[in-house]
Amino acid sequence: MTRTDQLRDRTDPFKGGRSGPRRKVLISGASIAGPALAFWLNRYGFAVTVVEKAGTLRDGGYPIDVRGTALEVVRRMGILPRLQDAHIDSHRITFLDGDGGKVASLNPHTVAGSAAGRDLEVRRGDLTDALYAAVRDDVEFLFNDSIDTLDQSEHGVDVTFRGGGRRTFDMVIGADGMHSRTREFVFGPEEQFHRYLGYCFAVFTMPNTFGLSHEVMMWNTPGRAAAFYAVGDSDEVHAFLNFAQPEPPFDAFRNPEAQWDLLACAFADAGWEIPGMLAAMRDADDLFFDGVSQIRMPRWSSGRVALVGDAAYAPSFLTGQGSSLALVGAYMLAGSLADRDHAAGFAAYEHNTREFVTVNQEQVGEGDAALFPTTARALEKRNDMLRNLSAMPPAEGRPAHSALILPEFMTMT
Questions:
Q1: pLDDT tens digits, residue range 93-133?
Q2: Mean of the pLDDT values across residues 40-47?
Q3: Among candidates 357, 383, 359, 361, which has minimal Cα distance to 372?
Q4: Are 302 and 187 in contact (CB under 8 A)?
Q5: What is the CA radius of gyration of the chain?
Q6: How far apart are CA 148 and CA 146, in angstroms?
Q7: SS3 state at 308
């Protein structure tokens, strides 16, 4: 008997002659929440399949944070050393005014409220690679496919795949992002759960012709921001454009030409490096455009289907907690299901995780992001704050990213 089989025999209450075979779970999405959930469900003895519409994992990507409680999740997964090796050690973030003059140059940890030497910032692709490597030999991955239909009954979930396959699972978990199709299948249109925060943004890569290294440079005028993020000494930088937009432009989210028109209009009279950024964006093959939004739902499950990560509770990039909530949510969902049926497990998952999610989502409100002021007065106030930031007292109490102490669901030694 293998080590994995021994774990399954001991940890799965639905295996080994008492209640039948291993429970089968389908996870839609192979970004962060999906592979993390697959890892923990496999540990608890589930038979896991992950379906991903893309043909491969998405590499590269904008840098993301792993902080607070999520650090303990990756430590328990055994991938913390790999992520520490991939850590991006940014040296400074420089804020510029509308004419390109320097407002302040600071240590990024001072701005983000993160802990140097402990909290991690890695490329999104480095995190997804680490998660995939930790689980790829133990679960089934179906790339270049997706759920076409799902039909629940008291006995399971019948799934038809876009590629033509048909299978039945005990549970289906949507880990397919803020614009989750799994959520739409079961709960209805996204608009009813979409909390728009008043901004739109675009990210893409462009040549690093500015001599930037291990740093961020951010330009602001009221209601507009642009930034270059130089990860290491790469010959490319991550370019970022953000602008205030009163209503969410839902039509533009699926229309690249409409996205270009919005950005060109918003930044039409901007100086600094903005004209070059707009030109580079036209040629970029990795442009990502979206609204700055959250997903807020009254419940995260229905019957045998549940949601995790951005599909259930996207907090927006303004909180810096999207990836961390995905990692923590995956751990909590899997552990809640380890010794319960789906109904009790889903209920426990939500009961024990919702407060942590809410605390993190409430770090930002509509149109009041500290880094992106929408009025001249608010921008000047922010700039004054940045100039004096080194003298600011530390925040009181437990920070939002550490507001949950991970439970020990089951001993696996």
A1: 999 999 999 999 988 766 655 555 578 999 999 999 999 99
A2: 97
A3: 383
A4: yes
A5: 22
A6: 6
A7: coil
Closest CA to 207 of 268, 273, 158, 270: 273
Which of these CATH numbers, 3.50.50.60, 3.40.50.1100, 3.40.50.300, 3.10.410.10, describes 3-89+120-193+296-364?
3.50.50.60
Under a CB-based contact definition with an 8 Å cutoff, are residues 150 and 101 in contact? no
- Which phi and psi angles does 20 have, rounded to 5°? 115, -165
* Adjacent-strand bridge partners of 199: 244, 292
DSSP single-letter state for residue 408: -
* Domain 196-292+369-391: assigned CATH number: 3.30.9.30
Q: How far apart (Å, rounded) are the C-alpha atoms in residues 125 and 61? A: 6
**Token pair in block for residue 48:** 């896991």
Integer Cα distance of 227 and 262 in angstroms: 18
How is residue 190 written in tokens?
A: 């996204």
Provide the residue type at 326 as one letter. Answer: A
> Going along 279-331, which residue ranges are E strands?
288-295, 301-302, 305-307
Q: Output the DSSP codes for 206-267.
A: EE--S---SEEEEEEETTEEEEEEE-TT-SEEEEEEEEE-SS--GGGGG-HHHHHHHHHHHT
Element of type H or E holding 192: none
Give pTM, 2 decimals: 0.89
CB count within 10 Å of CB 309 equals 31
CA distance 337 to 154: 17
Instruction: Report how far residue 269's alpha carbon sits from residue 318's, in angstroms, rounded to the nearest whole number.
Output: 26
Domain(s) labelled CATH 3.30.9.30 in the chain stretch across 196-292+369-391
- Tokens matching residue 285: 């093959």
The pair of three-digit structure tokens given for residue 260, joined into one six-digit string: 């270009």
Whole-angstrom distance, CA of residue 42 vs CA of residue 293? 32
pLDDT over threshold 90, residue 388: no
Question: Crossing angle for the helix pair 69-77 and 33-43, nearest 10 degrees?
Answer: 50
